[in-house]
Amino acid sequence: MAAVKELTRDLENKANDFRKLEKDIQKNQQVKKKYTIQLGENELVLKELDLLNEDTNVYKLIGPVLVKQDLAEANANVRKRIEYISAELKRLDGTLQDLQEKLNSKQESIAKLQQRIQTLQAGKAKA
User: Fold this and answer.
1) Apex CA 25: angle with CA 39 and CA 80, to 5°?
2) Where are the beta strands (DSSP E) in the chain?
3) From residue 18, how far is each of 81, 92, 101 by CA, in Å?
C-alpha cells in the first residue's frame, strides 16, 4: 500500500511538471505568433520603402513627433529589425522543439507510472 501511495505522489508531481511544460509551450507559441506578425509587417514596410525614389522624404515616428529620416537609414533599420526578428523566431523554434521533446518524455513516464500503479493495485485485488 505504501508503494502505491509513493507512486501516486510521484505521478502527481510528474503531472504538475507536465502542466508547467504545457503552459511554457503555450506562452512560447504566443510569443512566436507576435514575432511572426511583426516580421510580416516589417517585410511589408521594406517592400514599400523599395518602391520609393532616393529623393523621397521618409519620416519616422518618435513619440508624438515625426522626424525626417534618410531613406537608406530607414531601409537599414528595417532590415536590421527583420534580421533580429528572424533570429528570435529561429531561437523560439528551437525552444519549442526542446519543450515538446520534454513534454513527450514526461508523458511517457506518466504512462509507465500509471501502468505500474494499475499493476500493483490489480495484484493486491487478487490477494
Assistant:
1) 20
2) 58-62, 65-69
3) 35, 19, 12
How far apart, in whole angstroms, are the C-alpha atoms of residue 73 and residue 59? 11
pTM across the whole model: 0.80
Neighbours of 78 (CB within 10 A): 20
Q: Is the CB of residue 96 less than 8 Å from the CB of residue 29?
A: yes
- Is residue 7 within 8 Å of 1, Cβ to Cβ? no
Nearest to 39 by CA among 78, 76, 74, 94: 78
pLDDT tens for each residue of 67-95: 999 999 999 999 999 999 999 999 999 99
* pLDDT tens-digit series, residues 29-39: 999 999 999 99
Q: For cell 514596410, what's the residue?
A: 45
